[in-house]
């Protein structure tokens, strides 16, 4: 059985659930932080013809996974925070490292963001698409930009008596983190998804589609 770690995902709190797993090694359920599916949803939200994206922060588990996947596909990932760039660069596989760039001058209209303030949003060029990579929605500061949903999918028609998963999501739409826990059970996956361990994003995405979950956006 899988359970999502909604309020325990932050690495600074418990290592994305790893400390809890170590404390209870005989735990009968599986800890699922949902990072694999969330990463998959974010990747599928990025336009298929994208050549370049801006990563606002690269410290989270999902941010790192998204950056590595994009660089591995030959898509340039731009960051403007040198310390975070250096940290991510050191973890990047050699074949994708050249696609990670630190710059304050390159302008791109696809922004991958977690926490971003009003001032930073106003720095984005007109027509920018803001793609959240965390479970919390962005404050919509710009009227000349597009804001995508937090990582989420429409639930299958066969799922009944479900209204809103989060108060910022439409009816019958569920966050990727909740869906991941359901998939873990449906697929009979026996591994934990916590700490530095993550389900393969494509595997998680394919399982979601196979079980009838529907993307909110098309790349």
From TrEMBL:
**Predominant cellular place of this UniProt entry's protein:** membrane
Q: Which GO terms describe its cellular component?
A: membrane
InterPro entries per the record?
CER1-like_C
Look up the domain of life of the source. Answer: Eukaryota
Q: How does it sit in the membrane?
A: Multi-pass membrane protein
Q: Which Pfam families match?
A: CER1-like_C
Which compartment or compartments is the protein found in? Membrane
Write the protein's name.
Very-long-chain aldehyde decarbonylase CER1-like C-terminal domain-containing protein
Source organism per entry reads: Triticum urartu
Annotated ranges, domain Very-long-chain aldehyde decarbonylase CER1-like C-terminal: 53-215
């Amino acid at each position: 059985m899988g359970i999502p770690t909604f309020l325990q995902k932050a690495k600074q709190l418990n290592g994305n659930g790893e400390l809890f797993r170590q404390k209870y090694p005989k735990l009968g359920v599986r800890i699922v932080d949902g990072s694999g599916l969330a990463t998959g949803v974010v990747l599928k939200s990025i336009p298929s013809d994208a050549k370049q994206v801006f990563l606002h922060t690269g410290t989270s588990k999902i941010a790192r996974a998204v950056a590595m996947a994009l660089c591995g596909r030959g898509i340039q990932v731009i960051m403007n925070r040198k310390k975070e760039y250096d940290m991510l660069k050191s973890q990047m596989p050699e074949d994708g490292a050249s696609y990670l760039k630190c710059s304050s001058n390159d302008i791109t209209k696809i922004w991958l963001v977690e926490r971003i303030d009003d001032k930073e949003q106003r720095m984005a060029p007109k027509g920018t698409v803001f793609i959240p990579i965390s479970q919390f929605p962005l404050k919509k500061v710009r009227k000349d930009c597009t804001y995508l949903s937090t990582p989420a999918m429409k639930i299958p028609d066969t799922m009944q008596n479900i209204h809103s998963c989060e108060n910022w999501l439409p009816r019958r739409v569920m966050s990727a983190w909740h869906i991941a826990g359901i998939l873990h059970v449906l697929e009979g996956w026996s591994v934990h998804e916590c700490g530095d361990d993550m389900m393969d994003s494509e595997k998680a995405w394919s399982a979601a589609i196979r079980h009838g979950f529907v993307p909110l956006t098309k790349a």
